[in-house]
Amino acid sequence: MSSSHVQNLLKLDTKASKRATALLEHNVSRPRRDKVSLSAFAFVFGEIIRYSQNRVLGIQDLEAKLNEIGKRVGVRVFELTMWREKTVHRENRVLQTLVFINTVVWRALFDKQADSLERSTESDDEYMITDNEPSILKYVSVPREMSSFSPGAFISGIVEAIAECCQCPARVTSHVVPAEGMPLRTVILLKFDKEVMERERQLESGK
Predict the structure, then answer these.
(1) Looking at beta carbons, which pairs linking 87-90 to residues 24 or more positions away fall under 8 Å?
(2) In what order do the strands lie in the sheet with 126-131?
(3) Which of left, alpha, beta for 174 (phi over 0: left; psi -120 to 50: alpha)?
(4) pLDDT at 42 over 90
(5) 20-32 pLDDT, tens per residue?
(6) Is 172 helix (H, G, I), strand (E, B) or coil?
(7) 19-35: string of b/e by CB count within 10 Å (b at 16+)?
């Protein structure tokens, strides 16, 4: 190996080390200005779906796998947002937890607030967070034979983990509910555990 070739390798190694050092020295308490491009994330997310699809037997298993991956992300998102918000108090009431997810978490993930937060008219333990145009699903193409598949299961996993971190465990599912001009409109449905709703009733009654 020539000396010039060795010098070139050393230069490349030095540049890589500097980039790694800069990344490690970044202040995590402040959001980064240089954000990951949507196309780059879409590529990674597509590979996650493909990887998961090769290891499951059906659509339900695939959604469960994406939900599981989302939960791992959700725990880290919760820790990071709590650190950045300098919040000592951890929300443990249902409504405050939902508002935290709908605003703070959504802005951290998608650079915007969710489009709506609603309570079910049929059941008092069910709430819905709606995103009319979830950015991470923009480049996901679902085959016709998998029309019932909701890639938003990844998002529901994030939400489920954060609700659990706030001591408000719930079963969270994702549903694509298209509307005029909004083909990717996604509804995240949260159904809180009975123990959570019982605690809410006790707190509201002052017991």
Answers:
(1) 90/165, 90/166, 90/167
(2) 116-119, 126-131, 186-192, 170-176
(3) beta
(4) no
(5) 455 445 555 555 5
(6) strand
(7) eeeeeeeeeeeeeeeee
